[in-house]
Amino acid sequence: MATITDVARLARVSPATVSRVLNGTTDVSPERAERVRQAVAELQYQPFSPARALRRQLTDVWAVIVADIENPFFTSVVRGIEDGAREFGYRVLLCNSDEDVGKEAGYIDVAVGERVGGVVISVASTRQSDLAPLLRLGVPVVAVDRRPVGHLVDSVLVDNRLGARQATAHLIENGARRVACITGPKRLSTANERLAGYKDALAAAGRRFDESLVLREDFRQAGGYDAVRALTSGRPRAHPDALFVANNQMTVGALQALQQQDLDVPGDVKVVGFDDAPWATLTRPQLTVVAQPTYDIGRTAAELLATARAAKGGPREVVLVPKLVVRESSGRPG
Amino acid sequence: MATITDVARLARVSPATVSRVLNGTTDVSPERAERVRQAVAELQYQPFSPARALRRQLTDVWAVIVADIENPFFTSVVRGIEDGAREFGYRVLLCNSDEDVGKEAGYIDVAVGERVGGVVISVASTRQSDLAPLLRLGVPVVAVDRRPVGHLVDSVLVDNRLGARQATAHLIENGARRVACITGPKRLSTANERLAGYKDALAAAGRRFDESLVLREDFRQAGGYDAVRALTSGRPRAHPDALFVANNQMTVGALQALQQQDLDVPGDVKVVGFDDAPWATLTRPQLTVVAQPTYDIGRTAAELLATARAAKGGPREVVLVPKLVVRESSGRPG
DNA sequence: GTGAAAGCGCTAACAC
DNA sequence: GTGTTAGCGCTTTCAC
After folding, report:
1. What count of Cα atoms within 13 Å lies in the side-chain half-sphere of residue B283?
2. What residues does each domain of chain A span?
3. Which is nearest to A96 in space by CA: A62, A59, A121?
4. How many CB atoms lie within 10 A of CB B64?
5. Which among B93, B94, B221 has CB closest to A278?
């Protein structure tokens, strides 16, 4: 591969001049600039990024570390981040922590090693994810979706508690007597906040909180499936007549389990899921969900990251509002 | 941030010795090695990747360039690639070309600039995507899903023609008289191969090929929706009684359009989609699809990439076999 | 406006 | 085993 020296030789100028033409830092005489451009084209020269990064001590790359690249929620957020990054002149290095704190730590090390210009992260664990290596370096970090505790970073969150409260209240209004909550692991703030919102709604309706109706699973499809199997395995009187499922992938699993057991939705069990999906109107019945502003979450994160170095004061926190989208799976009033 | 020199000073050794400890290239006396490790820990030293890449002239990074990060097909492929990459000791830099040859070219330049160790790409265009910058550099490239013409690269493809033929034949066997094909743009080999398979099946059944029953849209949801609207807008006798939809996202749109027009599936219109989805059993009726071995595609690509430098002979091509998964949307025989 | 020269942090060749 | 040294490709003073 050609180097800047090769280009300089061919264009009969110094390497410094080639650099100046490429970066537009100083004026170069038109003729020489033209010679340089020709030489670049002829040699198909492409600057070697590591050399440039070494010299400049920074890169125009952001690392985006998401917990689950297969979850459409995150890919939509990523799209928002990407579009924002492009606008601000950054490239995006996308990493998948796979809900694993260890893998996540590895990618954080990579981000540190690359001296990336910024990091957007949906932490694998609210308490255990360690952002310190980034913060020590002074790399701006924006947390999305999940709240990291003990680290002072900007964040873009959704009012999960509100969304969960609305979902649960809606089920109660529609006549549900025993609403179960299938939520995620304790290590995720989203799981806890959605559970809290569920409790809020019960309390507001004067309902007793029944521990046996709350199940924690991982946020994956199999978790939703297993939860429903467990909830419907005991004596029938103990079964729930409504489900608030706190995550999109678990909702798929939950619906599959209900279907397999010939339980009618919403007749036997009413269902509200979290996060909308393109196919939510294709299921029978159509799925009621708490929709999240996924793309905006990403967009907003990019804006915070781009302005992080200039920002004064403490961490900035943006909380976006989810929206209950009522379809058929949650039944009807009365 | 601490440098290798800082570590060396603190450990009272030379920078070379620190490097040796970190990379395990040569034996270092136990005591000195221990001192180095302590210094590394104390300073929280993290090697600066660009400096290392500059010196070594290569990186342990693969670029994975996918056409649409929001398409679950690709994210599943990516998971396969990632798992393979990890096994072979590579990190994955994920890029989203957004079905745009221009953005794709930008990421190819990035890959060249970074001198990545390999590239896995699902090209944005069979003919227009330009892999030459990579090949000139000698970077191993593996194409997945879509076939790039005019470039000698390894590839992992699916037998789209076979899958499409099976899908269409199945619809015909189930009594469809007018099978429409909603496929993708001409620039994508997958779109063309699936159309070819559709034609194969018609021919094998002795059916006349009717141009008006073939629609090309982009591979996105709105495309499927628009196609169905178009197909059902003319005089009823011209409407199809079956649809072969050549892509997962378009299938969602197509089903939505059918639903909106109160067309019964499979009564009025039988449907087979391409690529399976977790929610395919939740729709009413359950969706018949041609399932692709997504994860294996990625896995296989990683294996080809890891062994590319050692491989002799011409380009290697692996063709995986899709599988028709019959559910309800395609009707019943007779 | 331009070139010479230094140096970013790291590793590998070479001495000892 | 270990330290010294050179140099990867680039940008940025500093002279002129």
Report:
1. 33
2. 1-47, 48-158+295-320, 160-292
3. A121
4. 31
5. B221
Q: In angstroms, rounded to a whole number, what is the distance separating the alpha carbons of residues B14 and B46?
A: 17
Per the CB < 8 A criterion, the answer to whether B253 and B228 are in contact is yes
Q: Which letter does DSSP use for residue B150 in this model?
A: T
Question: Which of B44, B69, B284 is nearest residue A75 as measured by Cβ atoms?
Answer: B69
For the segment A192-208, what is each residue's pLDDT rounded down to a tens digit?
999 999 999 999 999 99
Per-residue exposure over A114-126, b if at least 16 CB sit within 10 Å of its own CB, e if not:
bbbbbbbbbbbbb
The 8-class DSSP code of residue B177 comes to S
Eight-class DSSP state of B253: H
What's the pLDDT score for residue A93? 87
Instruction: Select from B47, B92, B281 the Cβ nearest to the Cβ of A113.
Output: B47
* Phi-psi domain of B141 (left: phi exceeds 0; alpha: psi -120 through 50; beta: other): beta
Q: Tell which of A95, A114, A220, A281 to mutate to test the B interface (max B CBs under 10 Å).
A: A114
Higher pLDDT, A76 or A313: A76
| B206 contact A CB<8A | no
Strand C proximity: list residues 49-78 of B with CB under 7 Å.
51-52, 54-56
Q: Which pair of tokens denotes residue B226?
A: 């628009």
pTM above 0.90, yes or no: yes
**Measured between CB atoms, which of B54, B78, B249 is closest to A54?**
B54
Q: Which nucleotides of C are covered by protein (CB under 7 A)?
A: 1-5, 7-13
- Give the mutation candidate from B66, B76, B94 for the A interface (greatest A CB count, under 10 A): B94
Amino acid at A221: Q
Give, in degrees to the nearest 5, the angle at Cα A322 between A181 and A265.
45
Q: Is B255 near chain A, with CB under 8 Å? A: yes
Superfamily of domain B48-158+295-320, CATH level 4: Response regulator (3.40.50.2300)
Judged by a CB distance cut-off of 8 A, whether residue A221 touches chain B is yes
Q: How far apart are CA A257 and CA A231, in angstroms?
A: 10
Q: Does domain A1-47 have CATH number 1.10.260.40?
A: yes
Specify the CATH superfamily of domain B160-292.
Response regulator (3.40.50.2300)
Q: Chain B within 8 Å of A282 (Cβ-Cβ)?
A: yes
Window 155-214 of chain A: CB closer than 7 A to strand C: none
pLDDT tens figures, B263-278: 999 999 999 999 999 9
Closest nucleotide relative to residue A5's CA, C1' based: D9
Instruction: Examine domains B1-47 and B48-158+295-320 and report if their fold is the same.
Output: no
Q: Which residues 95-154 of chain A have a CB within 8 Å of chain B? A: 95-96, 109-110, 112-115, 133, 136-137
Of chain A, the percentage scoring pLDDT greater than 70 comes to 100
Q: B144-181, pLDDT tens digit by residue? A: 999 999 999 999 999 999 999 999 999 999 999 999 99
HSE-up of B314 (CA within 13 Å, CB side)?
4
Contact A245, A261 (CB under 8 A): no
- Whether omega before B266 lies within 30 degrees of 0, making that bond cis, reads yes
A255 touches chain B (CB under 8 A): yes
Residue A68, chain B, CB below 8 Å: the answer is no
State which amino acid sits at residue B305.
L
